[in-house]
Amino acid sequence: MSVARVTEITSSSKESFQDAIEQGIARASKTLKNVEGAWVQDQKIVVEDGKIAAYRVNMKVTFILAE
Q1: In this predicted structure, what is the pLDDT of residue 2?
Q2: pLDDT band at 67 (very low <50, low <70, confident <90, very high)
Q3: Alpha-carbon gap, residue 13 to 3, rounded angstroms
Q4: SS3 annotation, the chain
Q5: Which of 38-58 are b and which e, b meaning 16 or more Cβ less than 10 Å from the residue's Cβ?
Q6: Fewer Cβ neighbours under 10 Å: the N or C end of the chain?
Q7: 21: closest CA among 2, 37, 4?
Q8: When comparing pLDDT for 1 and 25, which is higher?
Q9: Are 55 and 19 in contact, with CB atoms under 8 Å apart?
Q10: Distance CA 63, CA 56 (A)
């Protein structure tokens, strides 16, 4: 039997939502072992001077707890 845990993270990119997701998963995988999946809860853009300055995503990351 395995037990999973979910943690919420926020990631940001100046390039795109996709890049923010990829950076967030890469960073979470450095700290969390056994990352199994994630779902994007929210997407948001930051606007400065009428232009998109950053893309942000809030994700819930699922990982399996070690025995």
Answers
A1: 83
A2: confident
A3: 32
A4: CCCEEEEEEEEEECCCHHHHHHHHHHHHHHHCCCEEEEEEEEEEEEEECCEEEEEEEEEEEEEECCC
A5: beeeeeeeeeeeeeeeebbbb
A6: N
A7: 37
A8: 25
A9: yes
A10: 22
Task: Using CB atoms within 10 Å of the CB of residue 59, give its burial: 0 to 12 exposed, 13 to 18 middle, 19+ buried.
Answer: buried
Residue reference for tokens 């395995």: 2
Give the amino acid at 29.
Answer: S
What are the tens digits of pLDDT across the range 3-58? Answer: 999 999 999 999 999 999 999 999 999 999 999 999 999 999 999 999 999 999 99
